[in-house]
């Protein structure tokens, strides 16, 4: 079973974000379904502040566009970023994921050099977390690079991930994404291991040269995706 670095990018997210399994990075989004939007002027449901970034942004510029505690309000605490990675991640039952190539970092990020991330927990509930990731590259590279993973995962609604010696059953459900940006993705991930199941929603939007991914508790994702996109494309 072949496990490329790009495959690890997709699988590390699901294993850690859903089940808090050790040593995998949770910094890579892995949405599974994609639809293309018409031009912004022809999309009346799009967010009014959703201007298109046209230049590739640096990591420092992306960090300035991330949500922070002030944007989220009371009760949110920022989590320290996890940078660890591991090589013993295997996918079973999804040939499209096994065949993925690429040069994604071993830590599990998508294969774009310009990126930034922030993760938060909501006070009073260990299961209430929300993570935002921003990437920047040319429109063509953002679209084609992420689409490779999306297409592979949508081809396998059920598969298994083995992290070390821990098997994790993965299931994905395509959701209707909000009418935002040039391309958008949304899915519900369900991971089951050791008799325990966890659910995470992910919504991703590409607008111009910025790709935004919001992941976490379904209610929190729905609450903050619009605000996150507005700040991502126009921080002022």
Question: What is the typical, i.e. mean, pLDDT?
Answer: 74
Shape descriptor = globular
| Number of helical stretches of at least 4 residues | 6
Supply Rg: 16 Å
Give the H and E element order. HEHHEEHEEHEEEEEH
**Proportion of residues in extended strands:** 25-35%
Structural class: alpha+beta
Strand and helix map with partners:
Layout (H helix, E strand, L loop, with lengths): L4 H15 L15 E2 L22 H6 L4 H4 L3 E3 L10 E4 L2 H4 L15 E9 L6 E8 L2 H16 L3 E6 L2 E9 L8 E11 L2 E12 L2 E7 L1 H16 L3
Antiparallel strand pairs: 1-8, 2-4, 3-6, 4-5, 5-10, 6-7, 7-8, 8-9, 9-10
Write up what this structure looks like.
This protein is of the alpha+beta class. β9 and β10 form a beta hairpin. The termini are far apart. Helix content is 26%, strand content 30%. Strands 1, 2, 3, 4, 5, 6, 7, 8, 9 and 10 form a ten-stranded antiparallel sheet that branches. It contains six helices and ten strands; from the N terminus they run αβααββαββαβββββα. Mean pLDDT is 74; it is low at 1-50 and 101-109.
At a glance:
The chain is an alpha+beta fold. It has helices at 5-19, 59-64, 69-72, 95-98, 139-154, 218-233; strands spanning 35-36, 76-78, 89-92, 114-122, 129-136, 158-163, 166-174, 183-193, 196-207, 210-216.
List keywords for this structure.
10 strands; 236 residues; alpha+beta; disordered N terminus; 26% helix; 6 helices; ten-stranded antiparallel β-sheet
